[in-house]
Amino acid sequence: MTTALPHRILVRSDRIVLGLAAALCVLAGLAHYGGWNTTVAFVVSAAAVAVLASLVGRSVDQLGDRFGPGATGVLQSALGNLPELFISIFALKAGLDSVVRSALVGSILANLLLVLGLAFLVGGLRNGTQQLGSERARTLSVLMLLSVVAMAFPSLAHWVHSPAQDHEKAFSTIVSIILIAVFVLSLPFSLRRDTQGASPEAEPPRWPIALAIGMLAASGALAAFVSDWFVAALQPAMESLNISQAFAGLVVVAIAGNAVENVVGVQLAARGNSEYAFSVVLNSPLQISLVLAPVLVLISTIFGLGSLTLVFSPLLVAALLAAVILAALISVDGESTWLEGATLIALYVVIATSFWWG
């Protein structure tokens, strides 16, 4: 109970966020299972996701000074990607392989362009040029480029009608296993502290470590369920507005599923914690490309849930390559400015517009 904790641990704003999160999650559940009006269910679920994202952000703040930006980014991103995992599994079970492909690409693009761009833009306007940690920025950029290029090869084999085209499932499975292996090999680097440069001054953590981890885990798990309810309420609205499935999967579902990173990354950048913000935001698309997409391919193969492969449309692959190249060019020097953030957002808007008609 919050009343048993000293006042200095949970301040007034903490208690307000916790109360709102609990109330909105209950309302979102009632709206989903009680057959409420679709618009009401959509608004309540969206509000619940936003408040849960704020709670995740507070938990990340309380963990950051203890574990460092790398470990915190990996942990937060893993929990933040739970909505995509659940939604994708349900979609695969329903045979919606194309929706899963567009949602996976959309999640990478939303984090790599929109969220990272907003973090650079807001942080740059408030704090000037931001330091990202040059060694970490280079390594994360290389891993991101590797994962996107590896994901593109099954598509290239399909387009040029190479002999591998007849073995798309096996090719995608092999690539998936390799990507997961690369992620495992990258963990020691991602989890260690970056000793280069000094972190911005921040207030000492108020929460005990057990409370911070518990809040992060609980809010991440709840965000998974609420995001699923949000998408369920959103689908009828998409049909009534005559928005294409490609745009819905690439943009709407992706942004909804990444609400946690949307809020956390921008919050950290605005507070001057640019290294933490960069690690949190970039770890999410990195985990999608190195872990989530490969795991879903393996789940599809092992359990017979659809026929998901790493074969994407030419426009999706072009969007991925353009996004990762621009993001790498901006971040590889270990610094970012508000204008560079604006360029990332501009590219995202161009790509999203290209899928508006399907």
Major beta-sheet overview: 2 strands, antiparallel
Q: Quickly count the helices.
A: 12
Radius of gyration: 20 Å
User: End-to-end distance, in Å?
Assistant: 49 Å
Estimate the helix proportion, in percent: over 70%
Low-confidence stretches: 1-7, 195-199
Structural class: mainly alpha
Q: Quote the average pLDDT.
A: 80
With strands numbered from the N-terminus, the spatial order across the biggest sheet is 1-2
| Proportion in β-strands | under 5%
Order of helices and strands: HHHHEHHHHHHHEH
Overall geometric form? globular
Describe it.
This protein has a single domain, classed as NCX, central ion-binding region (A middle domain of Talin 1). The chain is 78% helix and 1% strand. It has helices at residues 12-33, 38-80, 82-93, 97-127, 134-159, 168-191, 209-241, 245-257, 259-270, 274-303, 314-331, 338-354, and strands spanning 130-131, 335-336. A two-stranded antiparallel sheet has the order 1-2. Helix 11 (314-331) runs antiparallel to helix 12.
Task: Draw up the topology in text.
Blueprint: H1 12-33, H2 38-80, H3 82-93, H4 97-127, E1 130-131, H5 134-159, H6 168-191, H7 209-241, H8 245-257, H9 259-270, H10 274-303, H11 314-331, E2 335-336, H12 338-354
Antiparallel strand pairs: 1-2
List keywords for this structure.
disordered N terminus, 12 helices, A middle domain of Talin 1, mainly alpha, 358 residues, two-stranded antiparallel sheet
